[in-house]
Write a structure and sequence with these properties.
Elements (H helix, E strand, L loop, with lengths): L6 H10 L3 H7 L2 E9 L4 E11 L13 E5 L19 H7 L3 E4 L10 E2 L14 H20 L4 E6 L1 H12 L7 E7 L11 H9 L3 H6 L3 E2 L3 H7 L2 H16 L8 H7 L7 E2 H13 L38 E6 L7 H5 L7 E6 L6 H4 L3 H4 L1 H11 L2
Parallel strand pairs: 3-4, 3-6, 6-7, 7-10, 10-11
Antiparallel strand pairs: 1-2, 2-4, 2-5, 8-9
Helix pairs in contact: 1-10, 4-5
Family: Belongs to the AB hydrolase superfamily. Lipase family.
Keywords: Hydrolase, Lipid degradation, Lipid metabolism, Membrane, Transmembrane, Transmembrane helix
Protein name: Lipase
Length: about 375
């Protein structure tokens, strides 16, 4: 479909799309859905691009190199598809290049709201954070993809928190280091300095658990899909732009008006409040570490003594043995190269700096097809030569 449409037409269709399947179709591809169950009972939905429209009956190429995408915080697999042209969509470009493209979804987002016995409206369902993404979601998803495709290895592409989950997962699951041939981190985060709003930063770092007092202990942004669908676009755009300034210090000057039309109505998705608290702890402690249970006596912590503090542990990211490519913008307030490099093995890291790029620009900047995607293709080609 996309071959006959202008960028304005595609942007409008993407804006109106209801799910990953519709987004894929707009960009010219069919898809498959797969469901995996983690060891702690969460059902995660994976998406796979399988064929371009009009070519469904052609024989599938066997043993295609596998690439797995992981989205960021408060988003889902749609994040990578919210573009105005197929040439700006990294999963589509890779599929066109002959890669077997899969996209994961964290527990708690719109595609992963089921559990074998926990109810989605219970605090127990939402009692998860980065530790659980790293301990369960990433290894379960990667193992499924490798088993299903009968592949020995895959390539991992993570955006924002999708990179943080990989830093954590690869550091605590040594076996994954043998099954991933390259880890490409788009706009990576590990040790963000803090919130851009000085007041918010000071308040929340002083007491990260204040976030629980404000938002409760279940879902963060549980009604966001409804709001994004009913708000007039000019109001939605203003809200998102203001939020990006105060949270990320991002002014979105590289994101075109058409790109905002396509992406902003889908930009946020549900996750746990606990995940936000975990990130705030990391920023306060200046340490990429496990969750610190601070003076909690809620139902999810009922087996702990009231007011007991369980200290955090640093993730041993310097033990990662996978070749890593960090693609980041020099205007990204969430990333400091010198700080991150202190926690990674230098011999395993290649760096790609993008001039005048902010955090979301790495996916949605107007020139990603020239600045970002060629670097990803080069990184993948090095492991498949």
């Amino acid at each position: 479909m996309s071959g006959t449409l202008s960028e304005a037409d595609i942007a409008q269709k993407v804006r109106e799309a209801r799910n990953f399947g519709e987004l894929s179709a707009i960009l010219g591809y069919a898809h498959e859905e797969h469901v995996v169950t983690t060891d702690d009972g969460y059902l995660l939905k994976l998406h796979r691009l399988v064929s371009s429209k009009g070519h469904e009956n052609q024989p599938k190429q066997l043993h295609r190199p596998v690439v797995y995408f992981q989205h960021g915080l408060l988003t889902n697999s749609e994040l990578f598809m919210l573009v105005t042209h197929p040439r700006k969509c990294l999963p589509i470009v890779l599929a066109e290049q002959g890669y077997d493209v899969w996209l994961g979804n964290n527990r708690g987002n719109k595609y992963s709201l089921n559990h074998v016995d926990k109810k989605v409206d219970s605090p127990e369902f939402w009692d998860f954070c980065i530790d659980d993404f790293a301990r369960y979601d990433i290894p379960t998803s990667l193992d499924y993809v490798l088993t299903y495709t009968k592949s020995a290895k895959l390539s991992y592409i993570g955006f924002s928190q999708g990179s943080a989950q990989a830093f954590a997962a690869f550091s605590i699951h040594p076996d994954l280091n043998e099954r991933v041939n390259v880890f490409i981190a788009l706009a990576p985060i590990m040790l963000p300095a803090g919130y851009s709003s000085s007041l918010l930063n000071a308040l929340l770092k002083r007491n990260p658990s204040l976030i629980f007092s404000i938002f409760g202990r279940k879902s963060m942004l549980s009604s966001i899909a409804t709001l994004q669908s009913i708000l007039p676009f000019f109001i939605l755009q203003k809200c998102v732009d203001i939020g990006l300034v105060h949270l990320l210090g991002a002014y979105s000057k590289n994101i075109t008006p058409l790109q905002k039309i396509a992406a902003y109505p889908h930009i946020y998705c549900s996750s746990s409040v606990k995940a936000i608290v975990h990130w705030t702890q990391i920023m306060r402690n200046s340490a990429f570490s496990t969750y610190e249970h601070e003076h909690e006596s809620n139902v999810a912590s009922s087996k702990r003594r009231e007011n007991e503090v369980i200290p955090s542990k640093r993730y041993p990211t310097d033990a990662i043995q996978i070749p890593m490519v960090l693609i980041y913008g020099d205007q990204d307030t969430l990333f400091d190269l010198d700080t991150v490099m202190q926690h990674l093995p230098p011999s395993k890291v290649t760096v790609c700096r993008l001039a005048d790029y902010e955090h979301l620009d790495v996916l949605w900047g107007g020139n990603v097809h020239n600045d970002v995607i060629p670097n990803v293709l080069e990184a993948l080609s090095r492991v498949h030569r």
